[in-house]
UniProtKB/TrEMBL annotation:
Signal peptide: 1-26
Gene3D superfamilies referenced in this protein's UniProt entry, alphabetically: Jelly Rolls
Coiled coil location: none
Annotated source species: Sphingomonas crocodyli
Pfam families linked: DUF4437
Keywords: Signal
Cross-referenced SUPFAM superfamilies: RmlC-like cupins
TM segment ranges: none
InterPro entries, per database record: DUF4437, RmlC-like_jellyroll, RmlC_Cupin_sf
Keyword Signal assigned: yes
Protein name: DUF4437 domain-containing protein
Amino acid sequence: MKLRAKLCLTVALAAGATVAALPAFAEQFGPPTVNQAPPFPVPEKGYEVEGRPGLMHNIPNIEFVTWEAFQAPGITAGLQRRLLSQSPSMDAVAQITYVPAGWTQPAGYDEVDNEIVVLDGDLSIGDEKLTKYSYSYMPAGLQHGATTSRQGAVLLQWYKGAPKFVASATSKAGARAHARVRDWNRYKYTWYVDDPFPAYRQGGNFPGYLHSLMRRDPDTGEMTWMTFVSGIAAPPSDKPGNFGGGAEVHPSFEEYYIPEGTRVATSDERGPTKAKYGGECVEGGVSSYKRGTRGYFWRAAGVAHGTVAQAPPGEKDGDGNLVKGNGEANWGWTLVRTGTRLWATYVTDCTYKTGIEYKQGDWRKYDYDVPRYVPHE
């Protein structure tokens, strides 16, 4: 269904919250020079745009989540999990799964999509041998060989629905064999900015963000990838950054897990705090969420995030010269998922009235007219 200028779409979230797709009314800058809308239909409701359970779900460090028995129909007993999030619309889950040494499960298929990243240890799925930072995607109903672990394993795992396994020698009718991803490993592939990583905004991808694409679903466009970022202390600048001095908006949820990096959260602060620099546009204003290595978060579609709160001014000496930089050196790499192909547009602030387009190395304001989901009670 194509979105039109005055169309209003809603989707139910947990706790009674809903979101609506509403194009902003025109301001004073006119239209963009190039259409900024995603080159695919914008989801209207459900899994692709939802929050878990609200707009933002944040776990600063997975060590703050208690292990529990992971029991599901057909799945061999003995597994433990840390439940990270659960879908309010279809019982899809994100979890850290502990597999004990010697655990085994017969050949068969999952009733829902099963996506796995091995964080440590080993896992074999038939003749597919997975080790640290290996990735495997098994579409619903697609038969695979027996699953075993010789030394045990810790997995980051996503089920696109309530987990259920069926022992079988054959695939279920209609299984998407063409979408299967086997034994992708972080150490086998290089990092890159553009192709083969899809373009995700008009004007070219960020020059400073390195990616390694793990999966782009040939049917739904869903994506899973790794992103590497680093930063050094630097004085404030009047030059706009990757977001043009504003904030980024996506037509899909965005889900993150941070396997490695320099920042580690040591206190279980899952809720938002008032942002001094950067953050998300949520009901309470511009808020930031503490997260670090081994942290996890989920952001619903349509929530602007980025430099909507400005950096504090740098310290100056008596002559007005900056005496030290802003921030600290850091690095990290992140596992990221979206419910559609990744796409980004930009706004100046949390009013969503003025957009910013990237054009020939510069930024230009326009009247934001891209359909998005707006949270309301």
